[in-house]
Amino acid sequence: MNNPANKDKMKLLGALVFLLGMSLSKYMGNKYGVNGRLSIGVFGVVLGLMIVIVLIYIKKYLGALVVFFTFLFFIIGLIGLIGIYLDNIYIVIAGLILALAFLKIIIKVLPRFNKKIEIINDKSLINSLNSNDIKTLF
To answer: Which of 16, 27, 37, 58 has its C-alpha lying 20 to 30 A from 127's C-alpha?
Structure first.
């Protein structure tokens, strides 16, 4: 993944998936209304959770954690979308409160993870560590 060509391919893939998702959401929203957007949201959450389960199964725990936290915002957004679908302002407010609480937690925790990632990215340090030392960092 350290190859710049791979990073460019990942950026391109991310942009294409984003555009595909936006066009699919627009099409489903125009054709089926809120039901179509809710269906896309549920499909996205199920897909994200399946990715997390596969990462756990192949013992990529850190990757599973990163993907889970990424999809947690999507799940919180889906809670708000369900509130709009049910025309219930309390569910929408609960989704907003959850999103703000999650942001506050991320703001507090992220600097600690950045320090650990800087330690892990140091190649000379990685070469001198064994797998048990890396596990103790997390």
So the answer is: 58
